[in-house]
Amino acid sequence: MENPHAERQNVLLQRIIKNADKCTEAILELNRCLEEIIQADAHVKTAADLVTKYRKNVQYNIEATRATDPPS
């Protein structure tokens, strides 16, 4: 006759393993999604950097134009 405690422990361990596997799958999927987001953010960061540089250039040119304009 088998030990009923061993059977119960075996069932519980199997449940734990199954849940751990599901958790691992979910974490892997989350990592894939985060990688996609990071790649998409790289394009947004590039665009933001370009806009920032453009704004600084415009500001510089406005100030340079004011400095060369004769007073009214």
Automatic annotation (TrEMBL):
GO terms for cellular component: DASH complex; microtubule; mitotic spindle. It is found in: Chromosome, Centromere, Kinetochore; Cytoplasm, Cytoskeleton, Spindle; Nucleus. Keywords: Cell cycle, Cell division, Centromere, Chromosome, Cytoplasm, Cytoskeleton, Kinetochore, Microtubule, Mitosis, Nucleus. InterPro entries: DASH_Dad4. Pfam families: DASH_Dad4 (PF08650). GO terms for biological process: attachment of spindle microtubules to kinetochore; cell division. Its main location: nucleus. Belongs to the DASH complex DAD4 family. This is DASH complex subunit DAD4. The lineage of its organism: Eukaryota, Fungi, Dikarya, Basidiomycota, Agaricomycotina.
